[in-house]
Amino acid sequence: MSLSIIGNWKSNGSLESNKSWIHDFKYSINDPEISNVAICPPFTYLDQMISLTSNLGLSIGSQDIDSSSGARTGSISINACKDIGCCFSIVGHSERREIFGESNMYLRQKLITAQESGFQVIFCIGEPKEQQLAGTTNNFLEKQIIESLSDLELLDGFTIAYEPIWAIGTGKIPDIKDINATHKFIKDIVQSSSKNNFTPNVLYGGSVTSKNAEVLFKEKYIDGALIGGASLNGKEFAEIANIFKNRGF
Questions:
Q1: Tell me, what's the pLDDT at 12?
Q2: For a 10 Å CB count at each end of the chain, is N or C smaller?
Q3: Catalytic: which of 93, 95, 127, 239?
Q4: How far apart are CA 150 and CA 115, in angstroms?
Q5: How high is the pLDDT of residue 70?
Q6: Residues 6+ away with beta carbon under 8 Å from 209
Q7: What is the largest distance, in Å, between two alpha-carbon atoms of the chain?
Q8: What is the pLDDT of residue 249?
């Protein structure tokens, strides 16, 4: 399964607002059976959202997974996610890296565990403002990729999400042509470093809205979007999905 438009709700939502979100999404999406759109609500709402979306083509994923199970207080195992109907997880979001100190090697282990369980991964990479200003974005991204993915056999559905950290939640995005070039660079590095020469889809994340989605999705190497703030509004999120479907190629 290839996912193109993914909403990351982070620590947002409630039992009642989630119902309203589904209503707004359902009546705003042009194709209710669209199969490449997904959301990642907080763990506490996974079961509810899986139930509410049973008649839609909307997939539900987790925002993170643990690399193990058992005596891991507060962690969520892959098997637990699969048991309630999740089909994928985000791994390596910049907030997990920064706030929880998750290293490239630790994220590599999460990926290995997920793939051994047949669980799809959306793997996040991205540079901080310092690297962007210094012109060393590609070097930074290459290090993240090599340390996390080198010599691994990547499975169908494995996807990279490129999120420049300085663009998340700021309303600012890099130059569109620069994003496209970075996506091509990421594809090339993953292809050359993975054991099976796998070329992933690469999603863009960082202040994506319905206002800038059309210009993003016209670019050759941008395969979709990982959406934060704009995904909290069901109508807005549906509009971005509609734009992606109608992108013209």
A1: 97
A2: C
A3: 93
A4: 15
A5: 78
A6: 230, 236, 240
A7: 49
A8: 56
CA distance 120 to 3: 10
For residue 69, the model assigns a pLDDT of 78
CA separation, residue 196 to residues 124, 153, 169, 173 (Å): 20, 5, 35, 32
Active site annotation includes 163: yes
Q: How many residues does the chain have?
A: 249
| Catalytic annotation, pick one of 95, 163, 236, 239 | 163
Q: Return all residues near 71 (Cβ < 8 A) that are at least 6 apart.
A: none
Q: How far is CA 88 from CA 64, 72, 112, 193, 205, in A?
A: 9, 20, 14, 23, 17
Known active-site residue 95: no
Contacts of 243 (CB under 8 A, 6+ apart): 210, 213, 214, 217
Q: Which of 121, 51, 53, 116 is nearest to 87 (CA)?
A: 121
Question: From CA 64, how far away is CA 107, in angstroms rounded?
Answer: 10
Q: What residue ranges do the domains of the chain occupy?
A: 5-245
User: pLDDT per residue over 117-126, tens digit each?
Assistant: 999 999 999 9
Tell me the three state secondary structure of residue 88: strand
DSSP code of 201? E
When pLDDT is cut at 50, 70 and 90, the band that residue 248 belongs to is: low
Q: Which fold has domain 5-245?
A: TIM Barrel (3.20.20)
Segment among 76-85, 108-117, 136-145, 165-174 with least mean pLDDT = 165-174
